Amino acid sequence: MIIRENTINSKRIYEGRMISLRVDTVELPDKKYSTREIVEHPGAAVVVPMTDDGKIIMVKQFRKAVEDSLLEVPAGKLDKGENPAICAHRELQEETGYVSANMQYLFSFYSSPGFSNEIMHLFIATDLTQGEAHPDEDEYIEIVSYELGQLIEMIFQGKIKDSKSIIAIFAASQYLGHNHLGQQ
Questions:
Q1: Structure confidence at residue 79 as a pLDDT band (50, 70, 90)
Q2: Of the listed 5, 15, 94, 137, which one is catalytic?
Q3: How far apart are CA 165 and CA 171, in angstroms?
Q4: Cα separation of the two ends of the chain
Q5: 79 to each of 38, 91, 141, 155, how far by Cα in Å?
Q6: In the predicted model, is pLDDT for residue 172 greater than 90?
Q7: Is 104 a residue whose pLDDT tops 70?
Q8: What top-level class of enzyme does the UniProt entry assign (predicted)?
Q9: 69: number of CA atoms within 13 Å, CB side?
Q10: How far is CA 145 from the centre of its chain?
Q11: From the CA atom positions of the chain, what is the Rg in Å?
């Protein structure tokens, strides 16, 4: 049985640079009505950049929404109609300065489908060449690198709290044939 909600009415109440917000009136399967607040987002590319010596390049940046500096994999918003692989290359270079000769798509996932349509496209980047980072003018980023096992420990220690980064790190571990602790 497929459960659906039919949209009766949809109204955009905010349109910003990163997101838009709409309110939908929906008909539920039992014919009652409800309201859904939907954050619209154009999607993002998420990159796990791996150096030749097996380290993963991470970025640390302040996130106003949680009032904390978070350790994250590089990622960024898709431009309208942009191919996620192009976005992945651009964001990797902008945030870290690295350029990848081998950008491998893994899978896509929704960041928070209970209230947002944002879809994230995950890539592993290898064959890296270091260059100069060019973050957006309002981004202040510290670039750091860790071994995969260290990152997995940091997740369980509560030191990495960003969901896309947690997904990306465990996916990279699986992709590389490591166990849940990041060991081969």
A1: very high
A2: 137
A3: 10
A4: 42
A5: 20, 11, 21, 30
A6: yes
A7: yes
A8: hydrolase
A9: 9
A10: 18
A11: 18
Token pair listed for 7:
């949209």
CA distance 28 to 48: 40
Q: In degrees rounded to 5, what are phi and psi of residue 142?
A: -105, 130
Can you read off the two tokens belonging to residue 3?
């459960």
Residue 55's nearest CA partner among 159, 155, 158, 128 is 128
Q: What is the pLDDT of residues 110-167, one digit of tens each?
A: 999 999 999 999 999 999 999 888 777 887 899 999 999 999 999 999 999 999 999 9
Which residues, in sequence order, are bridge partners of residue 14? 21
Which residues have a Cβ under 8 Å from the Cβ of 126 and sit 6 or more positions away? 49, 50, 52, 100, 101, 102, 104
Q: Tell me, what's the pLDDT at 182?
A: 55
> Which residue in the block uniquely carries the two structure tokens 């496209």?
121
DSSP 21-84: EEEEEEE-TTS-EEEEEEEE---EEEEEEB-TTSEEEEEEEEEGGGTEEEEE--EEEPPTT--H
CA 159 to chain centroid, in Å, comes to: 17
Active site residue 40: no
> What pTM value is reported for the model?
0.92
Q: Which CATH class is domain 44-175?
A: alpha beta
CA distance 91 to 85: 10
Separation of alpha carbons 39 and 112, rounded Å:
10
